[in-house]
Here is the input.
Amino acid sequence: MKVIGIIPSRYASTRFPGKPLSMIKGKTMIHRVWEQAWKSRLDAVVVATDDMRIAEEVLGFGGRYVLTDPNHRSGTDRCREVLYSIEEQYDAVVNIQGDEPFIDPGQIDQIIGLISRADTQLASLAKRIEDESELFSPNTVKVVMDCDGNALYFSRNPIPFMRNLDHGEWLKNGVFHKHIGIYAYKTETLCQIADMQPTSLEISESLEQLRWLENGLNIRMGITQKDNLPIDIPTDIEKAEQFAQNHPFEPR
Here is the structure.
């Protein structure tokens, strides 16, 4: 199976404009994401961007980019445009978040393994929640799965609900998982979901993956033991600098 990694990368972030070009220990964030992606088993890596400043940075470090429509609703739509723009044919796509400069290549390989299964249309990852602040934060997306590892539902609220227990007792008496925002799609599935209109659950929770579930698609979930360090706001750069200092990475 041939798998391409696509890194959606927008310049006009509401909370952090120009985020992909922010410097972390001498390298831009988009450069670090690209390097980490190439350490995995991906057959190709492409940056999908709507801004020439990002495109020029990608060219500068020897990467490959595709300029995409700035009006796309999501990174998923950007990924489909890349597929339509390139000549090569791929069986599956991994959507790698452009704001995770320290993504573990092993997680990319894990999701490649999931999407390579004949019975898998979509795949993503989850990690067990061990911190109460994450459990009750609406910024941490939670997921519940069936016995076969397929996602049942995603929510910004804690799920499942622990009846008759105080919040302080939930983690001691239940198992909760947070969603790790990396996706893989079979090529035909990506083309299918990009044509779907927003659904009521998606609008309520502001979670794109609920659209896929509402339309009857299965999302195969893998469990990872590693956390990620996404960059959401400018103050996150200081944490990223410290992480880079303590975890030096070398390109493949």
